[in-house]
Amino acid sequence: MLIVGPMPPPLTGTPVSFQLFVEEAQKSDALSHLNIIDASPRYLKQVTGTGLSFSRSNISQAWRIIWDFIQKAPKADRIILFGSNGFAISLAPILLTIAKLMRKPCYLRIFGGSLDQFVVKIPFFFRYLLYFTLRRVDGLIVQTKLLYDYFLPYLGEKKLYILAGYRSSEFRTYAPKNYVEPFHKPFRLAYFGIIKEEKGVFVLLESMQKLQEESDIQVLCDLYGSIPAEIESRFLHTLSQVEGVHFKGVLEWDKVIPTLSTYDALVHPTFYQGEGQPGVLIETMMAGIPAISTEFRSIPEVITDGDNGLLVPPGDTTALADAISRLYRDHKLYNRLAEKNWNMQKNYDASCLVPSILKQINESSNDSVFSELQSDSTYF
Q1: 67 near 95, Cβ under 8 Å?
Q2: Residue 9: is the preceding peptide bond cis (ω within 30°)?
Q3: 265-267 vs 309-312, strand pairing mode
């Protein structure tokens, strides 16, 4: 198999997810050999609009990827292209065309959960290019049921696959937190993610302010993540007005689960339009703590309200403050949510999900090749 995708650095969600896929694929019995092409230029994986970067260095890097692909594709039985929405209208159509000229089964895995919104927002030419790609891949691999349902009428169930968010099982040493009596200490919350408006950071700060002013419970909250320059001044000023909330900087990805396990709960009040299945929600499962998040996009696919966490309407500061207070005051509810959330991690175990999708692809591409030999048809 040949796979194309962005390897770290940086140690952020998309490259780390791809690296973990590579590591699990290399262990899998479904493959005899794995070739990797690193497609790590930022513009290939971070474009969310239509403004592609065509600097000399980026074009040179793109040609390097294409040349590597031309060299390695003839030796592959099947190919998977990993990338962002922007990748799907930049390099993916080129690589797909090359693969099809070589009569190689080719699959596309899109990171994140916003491809449906991307489709309707881009200009006609790019939309045509995207559907040209989607209709000609042997399979589209999406992260969420929301995307699966959206593209089902266009592509049909035979060309659609779900590969949920995943994390390594190496952190299974943690156990779910359990309290035998109500909290008599500060309730310690953590936020992990980019410090930005759409991630609900200012909603969280306002909710914490409400709790400090209107409630008798003791709550502390630490925030981890990078701060975009355009929001830094506003964030730091607002933060300085709220007691019990501290900014802890950026944490390396492999320290997230161990750090989460030292807190009582995660708070994740996002309304970010590109949200898929946030990795940090899966990491709370492995850390053995419950999560408070929002009823937004695909988040209810990961967190069920009252079952393995609590969900609130996005942007509702009062509902968020009430959910935090509820979790603090009801230790029996807390214990039940923490245990159920910890038990959910098996559904997001990379060591199970990656071999499973590889097996599905192997079976599908074998059927595709057989059908092609029977009909002697071409792809274009």
Answers
A1: no
A2: yes
A3: unpaired
Residue range 335-369, pLDDT digits in tens: 999 999 999 999 999 999 999 999 999 988 665 54
> Does a cis peptide bond (omega within 30 degrees of 0) precede residue 300?
no
Which residue's entry shows tokens 């080719």?
Answer: 106
Main-chain dihedrals φ then ψ at residue 372, nearest 5 degrees = -65, -40
Q: What are the C-alpha distances in Å from 71 to residues 3, 59, 174, 191?
A: 13, 18, 45, 44
Instruction: Mark whether 195 and 333 lie in a shared domain.
Output: yes
- 153 is in which domain, residue-wise? 2-166+349-375
CA angle 269, 276, 65 (to 5 degrees): 135
β-pairing, 245-247 vs 309-312, is: unpaired
Measured distance CA(111)–CA(93) in Å, rounded: 16
Q: For residues 282 and 345, is the Cβ–Cβ distance under 8 A?
A: yes
CATH number at residue 362: 3.40.50.2000
Tracing tokens 């607002």 back to the chain, one arrives at 238
The two structure tokens encoding residue 357: 């999708």
Nearest-angstrom CA–CA distance, 6 and 11:
11
Residues 42 and 72 in one domain: yes
What number of other Cβ atoms are within 10 A of residue 8's Cβ?
14
The sign of the dihedral angle between the CA atoms of 138, 142, 147, 148 is positive
pLDDT of residue 30: 76
- pLDDT tens per residue across span 91-101: 999 999 999 99
Please check whether residues 82 and 40 belong to one and the same domain: yes
Pairs from 214-218 (Cβ < 8 Å, separation ≥ 24):
214/321, 215/321, 215/325, 217/183, 217/187, 217/325, 217/328, 217/329, 218/183, 218/185, 218/186, 218/187
Residue 56 has a pLDDT of 65
Model confidence, pTM: 0.89
Phi, psi dihedrals of residue 102, rounded to the nearest 5°: -90, 0
Instruction: Round to whole Å and give the CA distance between 358 and 308.
Output: 29
